[in-house]
Amino acid sequence: MELKQAFDIVRQRSVSICAPLQTEDYVVQPVVDVSPPKWHLGHTTWFFETFVLQPNLKDYKVFNPEYNFVFNSYYESVGARVIRTDRGNLSRPGVADVYKYRTYVDEQMTLLLAQDISPELHALITLGLNHEEQHQELLITDIKYILGHNPLFPAYQEDYSFKERSITSSDFIRMLAGIYEIGHTGNGFCFDNELNRHKVYLEEYSISNVLVTNKEYLEFMQAGGYTDFRHWHAEGWDWVKTNQVRSPLYWHEVDGQWMNYTLKGLQLIAPNQPLAHISYYEAAAYASWKGLRLPTENEWEAAAPQLAWGERWEWTESAYLPYPGFVKAPGAIGEYNGKFMVSQMVLRGGSVATPPGHSRITYRNFFHPPLRWQYTGIRLAK
Amino acid sequence: MELKQAFDIVRQRSVSICAPLQTEDYVVQPVVDVSPPKWHLGHTTWFFETFVLQPNLKDYKVFNPEYNFVFNSYYESVGARVIRTDRGNLSRPGVADVYKYRTYVDEQMTLLLAQDISPELHALITLGLNHEEQHQELLITDIKYILGHNPLFPAYQEDYSFKERSITSSDFIRMLAGIYEIGHTGNGFCFDNELNRHKVYLEEYSISNVLVTNKEYLEFMQAGGYTDFRHWHAEGWDWVKTNQVRSPLYWHEVDGQWMNYTLKGLQLIAPNQPLAHISYYEAAAYASWKGLRLPTENEWEAAAPQLAWGERWEWTESAYLPYPGFVKAPGAIGEYNGKFMVSQMVLRGGSVATPPGHSRITYRNFFHPPLRWQYTGIRLAK
Amino acid sequence: MELKQAFDIVRQRSVSICAPLQTEDYVVQPVVDVSPPKWHLGHTTWFFETFVLQPNLKDYKVFNPEYNFVFNSYYESVGARVIRTDRGNLSRPGVADVYKYRTYVDEQMTLLLAQDISPELHALITLGLNHEEQHQELLITDIKYILGHNPLFPAYQEDYSFKERSITSSDFIRMLAGIYEIGHTGNGFCFDNELNRHKVYLEEYSISNVLVTNKEYLEFMQAGGYTDFRHWHAEGWDWVKTNQVRSPLYWHEVDGQWMNYTLKGLQLIAPNQPLAHISYYEAAAYASWKGLRLPTENEWEAAAPQLAWGERWEWTESAYLPYPGFVKAPGAIGEYNGKFMVSQMVLRGGSVATPPGHSRITYRNFFHPPLRWQYTGIRLAK
Amino acid sequence: MELKQAFDIVRQRSVSICAPLQTEDYVVQPVVDVSPPKWHLGHTTWFFETFVLQPNLKDYKVFNPEYNFVFNSYYESVGARVIRTDRGNLSRPGVADVYKYRTYVDEQMTLLLAQDISPELHALITLGLNHEEQHQELLITDIKYILGHNPLFPAYQEDYSFKERSITSSDFIRMLAGIYEIGHTGNGFCFDNELNRHKVYLEEYSISNVLVTNKEYLEFMQAGGYTDFRHWHAEGWDWVKTNQVRSPLYWHEVDGQWMNYTLKGLQLIAPNQPLAHISYYEAAAYASWKGLRLPTENEWEAAAPQLAWGERWEWTESAYLPYPGFVKAPGAIGEYNGKFMVSQMVLRGGSVATPPGHSRITYRNFFHPPLRWQYTGIRLAK
Question: Where is the secretion signal located (chains A, B, C, D) (predicted)?
Fold first, then answer.
C-alpha cells in the first residue's frame, strides 16, 4: 500500500473509533493508566508534528506551541510535559480544537507526502502510523473503562460486537526440544524490541490450541480461587486483598448471576467466549490451580504458526527484557521501548481491539502485572 | 418577592454563570474540593427533586432514579453516593442531560408553586434557593480553578470584571468593651448555624475599616514572610513547606513581575485591590508579621454595621462551632450545617462571587484552614 | 517549695515512671504521636541544657553537640531536628547514654541552682519543670500504648492501679446566666495560653457532676452508636469508617466479653469507672446520642469550683484559640503554645496520669479531634 | 560435615554476628525492608520449631504459642502474622527472651539430632540451616542500615573490615555461542529455584573479569549520570527524581569529599574497591553510560567457572522467573521461592556478607529493582 493511503486509513480510523462519543466522554481520566480520548487524538497528532513535520517540512508552522506541553506523553527529550495524572483535569484544548489540530497536521502531512520521501523518513512515518495504531487500541480500552466505570453503564454502541469464536473444545500441541529462531525477520515494519533475530534452545513443551473461556474461569472462582493464597504470587495475593478482587474486571454479580460490561452495555457472561480483562496475577493463579503454567514468550513464538491467535493479548511467563544484541534507536525515538524494559510482563498475540494487520507473531506487547483494562487472556502450557 | 419569582431568578442565575463555558469545562475536577460545573447544576436540582418534589408533589415521577447516586453530595440519609473524588470521572450524564434534568424539575416546581404552599414548605424551598446560591458562588470559584489551572490559561470571559474599589487609606474603628448580641434576629431567612441570638461579652478592641491589599501583602512576601517560621502556626508552616507555597493562589511571577490569573485571564497584580485567595494560615501569618491579629467572629459581627464588607470572605480567628442553644433540624436537612462543626474556621462577610443579597452580617461561612480557592481576604484587628 | 527541691522531685519522677521498663521498651515508636520513652527522658533534659544551662551557667559544656539533632522536638529556632516519625528508628544514643546525659545535666543544674537565681531564670526553670511534668504524663500514656499494642499484652506493673472512684449516681449542676471571669490569676505558675484573665458572658446552662462511665458508653455501643451516622460529625464518621472503629481504644471483645488493656494487663471492663481513651468525635457522638452536648471550656471553668475533676481529661466543645489579649513569649519559648492554636480541641481537668499538682482549673490541654491515647473522658452539659 | 556440627556452627554464627550490638540495636526497624536483629534471631529459630521440631520430635512443647504470631515471616499456611511494617514496634519479647528461645530450641534440636534422621528430615534441617545463613547476611546488612542511618554514625566494630581485593585492571572474557547447561546438578544442597538443570542457547558474548570500582562509578557521577535521563529506565528515572538520589547508598559528601559509611564508621571512599549498595536502576544506567550492558543470569552462570566472584551480589539483566520444569515443594516449604517469581531481578555471585560456603555458581538471589541495602555491585558485559 502507498504510504499516503496508509496514512489516510490510519488517521481516519482514530476518528471513526471516537465517532459514537459524546463530547464529555473525550475529557475524563478515571484512573491513571487510562487517558482521555481527546488526549490520544492530540498526542498521536503531536507525534507527527514533532518528529515528522518539524524536522522535515520546510517552513512548517507549529499549530500551537503550548500543545507540546499538553500532548507530549513521556518523551523526556522534548521538553516539559503535563504530568500523567493531570490529563483528566484539562478541559482545554477542547475537542473541537483537537480536531482542528488533527486536520491541520493531516493537511501538512499531505503536503509532505506529495514530496520525495527518503527511506529514513518513510520508516519514521511508518513508525508514527504504528504508534497511532497502538493508541487506537488504547482508545477502545480507555473508552470502555470510562463508560464501564460510570454508574449508568452507558453503551459505546448499542449493537456493537466483536467477532469472537465460541470455544467448545481444546487440545495441547506438542513442541519438540531444540533450537528455535526468535525475533523479527524480513523487510516489513517491526518495533526495535523485536530485533534482532536470535537462537534459543527450548525444552520439550505443550501449548494449548485455544484460550481459557469464561466458563472455565468461573469454575476457578467457584472453587475459591480468589481466597486460596497457594495459587498466587505473594504480590498477587497482596493485590487481591488490598483491592478486594473477586472476579475479572467488568464482571458484576447481579441477583446471583454473573454479568459483564461490554461495549454494548451490561450483558450476561458468554460461557464459551475467551476470558478477558484479567491481570498477570490472575492468569498465573488460574494456571497454578489447573496444575499447569503460562508459556514463555519464546515458547509462544515458536508455536505461533500452529496457533489461532488474535482475540486476546496472552500473558506469558516472560518478563519484558531486551533481546540479545538489542540496540535502541538514537534520539527521542529511542525512548520508544527500551526504557520500559523492567518490571513488566510480555503479552503475545493481539486482541479484538487491535487494528487489523497491526500485530504479528514476533510482536511483543507488555504491561505491568496488575493491569487488566486491556483485552487480556490466558493460554495454558505444560 | 414572590417565591415563584425568587425561584425563577435563582435558577436562571446558575445557568447564566455557566453560559460562557465550553462543554468540556463542565466535566473536569482538577482537585477534590472543586466539583465539575455540571455536578453543581445537577446537585442543586437534585435537592429540589429529593427534598421538595418527592415528598410534596402528588404523583411526582423521578427524572432518573440513578441520578440520586450521582448528584447526592453528602446526605448520608439519602442513600449511596458517588464518592467525592470520583465526580470528575463521570462523563455521563452529559451536559445536555443535566440541562434536561433542570428543565424537568423547574417545570414540576412550577406546578408545585402554583399550589398552596404551607409555611414549612415555603421555608424548605427558600432553603433550597439559598443552597443553590451557595453553589453559585462555588460555580464561579470552581470554574476559576478549572480554567486557572489549565496550562493555556483561558479566560472565562475576555472582558469580565468584578466591581472592586481601590483601597488607598485605612483606619481602625475602636469598639468598647461590653455585652453584644450575636446571631440572627427577625423574620428573614437564615441558616440554622446563625441561631439562636445570644449575648457575648467583648473586651475593648479595634478593627480595620478596610481589607489588606495586594500591595501590602507583597511587602510581606518581599520581607521573607514565607520563609520565617515565627509568624506561622506549626501546621501552617508544614503546609508552606510541603506545598512549597510562596504566594497566594493564582499568583505567578513572570519575567520578574507578579501577575495573577483572573476571570479575564492573566493580569498584572492590581496593587490597591483587596488581596484574595489566601489560606487561614497565610492570613494569620500576615497578621502576626504586622504585630496584629485577625478579629474573632463576634468582634466582626459587633462591628459590622460600621464596616464596608462584601468584597472578600474574611478569615476570622474563630473556629466553626455551635452557638449556645444550637439545635439541628430534623431529618436529612439537619445534615446541612451541624456535622461540619469541627476543624474549620469561620469566615465573615461575602465576596465578589456571592450572589447579591445572599449574605448578611450574621452569616457564618466556614472552610478548612488550608483552603484558598474561594475569594478569601484579610481584615486586621488589635 | 524550694526550686532545688522541686527540681529534684520532678526530675526523679520521670526516672521512677520508667523504672518498670525493659531496655527495649524505651526504644520503639509504634505510631507517630507516641514517642520512645528514652526520647522523653532525653528531650526534657535537652530543654534544661538548651534554654537554662547554655545561656546561664558560665563555661557550661554541652554534653554532646549531636544530641540537639536528636532531642529537639519542634523548636524551629534551635536548629535541625530529627523528623518526628523517625524517633523510633534510632537505637543510639542508648538508654544508658540517655541516663548519663540526665545525670550530667542534673549535676550542672545543681551548680546553677546553688547560685543566685534571677526572677526570670526562676520562671524559666519552673517552665522547664512544668514541661517535664507534661512529658511525664506522655511517658505513661506512651508506655501504655507501646505495651498495649504488643500482641503479648505485657503489664507495665502486675499490681498497678490508679485510684479511681466508682460512679453510681449523677446529677446536673445548674449555672446561671451572667458574666464570668476566665483565665489565670494570682502569682502561681501558669502557661501563657491561660492568660490573660478576661470576662465572658455565659447563657444559663447545666453541667454534670460526674463523668460518663464505661457502662453508660457500652449502652451507646450496644444501641448501634458506631453505625449510625446521625450522631457523628462528618469527619468523625469518615474516621470511624476508615479506621473501622467500634469501641474505645484498648477495648477488646474476647469470647463475647468486653475487656480493656490497663497498666496491669488485660482486664474485664469496670462498669462504674469513668470511660477513657475516646476521641473528640466519640465524645461528641455520645453526647448527641444522649440528646445532650459537651460543655464549652468557659462553661467548664466557670463551674469547676463545684466539680470533682482530675480523673480524666474532658473534651470540651471549644477549639483551642488564643484568649483576648494573648501574647506569646519572645524567642524559642514563645513556640510553646501559640503555634498550635489551630485545628485542635481544648480538654479541661486532668487525668490519673497527670502529675499531682500539675493541673488547675484554668489549665488548657489540647489535642487533635481523633487522638485518644490520652486518658480522655466525657462530661455532659445541656 | 556432620549435620549436628553444621547445626552448631550455623546457629552460633548468628549469635556471633550480634555480639557487638547494644540491646537497643536489636529492636528498631528504620525501613520496611530491614528487620530488627532480634526478629531475625527469633524467626530463624521459629523455622526450626515449626517445621522441624513440631512435626518430628515426640512430645515437643512449643516455647511460647504466641511467638508464632510474632516470628512468622510470610508463610501464609502457618497462621496470622504480625504485618511486616510492625516488626519495629514490638519491644517484647525482649532480647533476653529471644536468646532463651534460641537456647531452648537448640537444646531440643540436639535431642532430635541424636536420633535417627530420615533423608527427608535431613533435607529439611539442611534447608533450615541455609535459611538461617540467608538471614545472617540480612543481619549484617540490616545492622549496617540501622547504624548507618543513625545521625551519630556509630561503628558496628571500630576495627571491622572485610577482605576485599583492590581492582586495578580489567579485561573481558569472550564466550562462544552455543548450548550451555544451566541449573544445579550433583548431590549437594540447592534451593528449588536452581532446578532443574536445562539447556540454553547463548549467542557469543564477552563478560568482564572484575567488578566496577568506586572510582569508575564516581566518574559516572561526575559526568552527570544522575541528571541525564537517557541512561535510565523510565521507572528508574522516576525513582531518582522522587528520592533525589545522587549517589550510592551510604555515600555522603563531606566538605567536598566523598565518604561512605562502613561497619567501622564513616570512611573515605576507597577508589579501587568494588562499588557497593546500588540499585538495579543504577547498575543498568551505569552500563548504558559505558555503552555496555549487564550480563543475563545464563551468561553469568556459563562464564562463572572463569570468574572470580563472591565480593558483591551482581545485578543481572534477568528477571526472576521459574526455570523450565520448575516445581515448587509441597506444603509451607513450597512458599519459599516460587511465590516471589514476579517483578524482581536476579543477582548472582555472593557478597562479603554471605556466609562462607553458602553460595555457588547456580545460586539465584533476587531483589526488587530499587533495593540497595545489600552489598550489590556491577559486572559489565557486551
Answer: none
